[in-house]
Amino acid sequence: MNLAERAFATETVLQRYRDKAFDWETAHCIRLAHAQAKAMGHKVPKLPKFKSAIAAKKALKREGVETVTELLDKHFLRHTAPAFMLVGDLCVLEGEDGFDAVCIADGQGSLFGWHDDKPDGLAVIKFAQADIKAAWRL
Length: 138
What we know:
This protein is α+β, with helices and mostly antiparallel strands. It has helices spanning 3-17, 29-39, 53-62, 68-75; strands spanning 77-78, 90-94, 100-105, 111-115, 118-125, 134-137.
């Protein structure tokens, strides 16, 4: 995909989740990553349904992983330098309750993801490059 196609695909996913508060049943980081990967042309397995953090942990274990980072490593090529993320790439920041927080890169240094500062939908997270734990090229 060229940059314009990547930006269009990313905007489609962002529109879908922009005004949705984090919710274990309908709007969470794994769903966001899944939707973004599909929009970027990746074939990804069907997502299991879960309604709580405990159920999400069990779903990760059924996939043979302990963390969201391990799940993403299982499906995508990890970046060696998150500073070179293109629009639409994925990354993780430190999350809560033992989960990593998945974000989508805008390609200009900002990220889109759920954040306490904006509880009613995805936030634009600026100046987070130093906090990125891992990143993946989609």
